[in-house]
Specification:
With 255 residues, this protein is mostly helical. The chain has eleven helices and no strands. The structure holds pyrroloquinoline quinone. It is an enzyme of class 1 (oxidoreductase).
């Protein structure tokens, strides 16, 4: 039988999970931030991550539908607004399309989702299904990776600007607001989980949901690594480096 932890200990256990398992430790992330990827490998990252971005509001809509107070829904709907935007403000999805465009990919192709890796699709869909099918507490806990994203976003953005001549601040504008939004969202999710995990098995479920989500992020980078870095084994239908680039941007073409 696991023992009931204090809130302080549960929070420390969650932070420890992030310390060890968050995608900030993945070799692809480290190559990306250290400038060790080719332009085409950065394009592969941007293309695949678009699918994650595009499904975030869908998974948040599953959570929203299960929240039963005005206050909770009001809090959670901000996440959907952040990604979908408003009539006057660009949302995260549009900004990610601008990022993919900024690294030289054809927008229509990126948005079609046709060239994404099966590993990307399976990981992202598993996240959406987890949130839909598990308890509300587990669904909310699975967003707790955002406790760790401000740090990795800072390191990634600085590294990319420093090392890649094809990356500009404007291209990475998606990340400008994310750290503040992620802090607001993860502070809320953390206090919700600490408050609601009132039995040892619920605390365990919260930790497992965070571990699951770390795997969702990790598996996406594993898929990129395998297809576009080592051994460079492309699955059927995956984006071929050198194709679907914007006009006049066919540099670094695959043979
Ligand atoms: O750049 C990153 O490393 C990173 C990580 C994460 C995350 O930890 O899940 C998210 C984001 N970015 C992000 O931009 C984002 O909108 C987001 C939403 C969520 C979520 O689970 O609800 N995670 C993340």
């Amino acid at each position: 039988m696991t023992e009931m932890m204090s809130k302080t200990d549960l929070e420390a256990a969650l932070r420890q999970i992030g310390e060890e398992r968050y995608h900030s430790n993945h070799p692809f992330q480290i190559m990306l931030q250290e400038g060790r990827l080719s332009k085409q490998q950065v394009q592969a990252w941007a293309l695949n991550r678009y699918y994650y971005q595009s499904m975030i509001p869908v998974k948040d809509a599953h959570i929203l539908a299960r929240l039963d107070t005005v206050e909770l829904r009001r809090e959670w709907r901000e996440r959907i607004i952040d990604h979908d935007g408003t009539e006057t403000e660009r949302g995260g999805i549009v900004k990610w399309i601008a990022l993919a465009d900024g690294v030289g990919l054809d927008r229509e192709y990126v948005m079609s989702g046709k060239g994404i890796l099966p590993g990307t699709r399976f990981a992202v869909d598993a996240y959406v299904h987890f949130v839909r099918d598990r308890t509300l507490l587990e669904a909310i806990a699975s967003s707790l990776t955002e406790l760790f994203s401000p740090n990795v976003i800072g390191v990634r953005t600085r590294g990319m600007l420093e090392h890649y001549d094809f990356i500009t601040r404007e291209t990475l504008a998606y990340f400008d607001k994310r750290p503040v939004q992620a802090k607001r969202d993860s502070d809320f999710a953390l206090s919700y989980c600490l408050e609601q995990a009132t039995r040892p098995e619920l605390q365990e479920a919260v930790m497992n949901a965070l571990k699951f989500k770390c795997q969702v992020l990790w598996a996406q980078l594993d898929a990129l690594m395998h297809a576009y870095v080592e051994p460079g084994h492309l699955p059927f239908d995956a984006w071929q480096p050198g194709t679907h680039a914007r006009n006049g941007d066919a540099t670094d073409r695959a043979a």
